[in-house]
Amino acid sequence: MSAPTHIPPHPATRRGVETRLPWWALVLPALAFAALLLVILNPADAHATGGDPAVGRLFEQVQQIVLNQGS
Questions:
Q1: Do residues 56 and 48 touch, judged by C-beta distance below 8 A?
Q2: What secondary structure does DSSP assign to 3-53, as a single string?
Q3: DSSP class of residue 2?
Q4: Distance (Å, rounded) from C-alpha 55 to C-alpha 53?
Q5: Under a CB-based contact definition with an 8 Å cutoff, are residues 39 and 46 in contact?
Q6: Distance (Å, whole) CA 29 – CA 22
Q7: What percentage of the chain has pLDDT greater than the value 70?
Q8: What is the pLDDT averaged over residues 35-51?
Q9: Global pTM exceeds 0.90
Q10: Could you give the angle at the alpha carbon of 13 between the alpha carbons of 9 and 15, nearest 5°?
């Protein structure tokens, strides 16, 4: 006895439907990426506003650990 075969229906075609992103959906992530890349490449230009000096020392130690791991 053979099992009945089911033919899947054709996928519906969506004609005339366009998905467009607003301009800021592409520009803002690109700007954020560029800003973070500049901070990583030149951390001396990234000035913290106030705060505890211990936090700065902690970030320096983390940076040294990361840089030493890559070597």
A1: yes
A2: PPP-PPPPPPP-TT------HHHHHHHHHHHHHHHHHHH-GGG----S--H
A3: P
A4: 5
A5: yes
A6: 12
A7: 69
A8: 72
A9: no
A10: 165
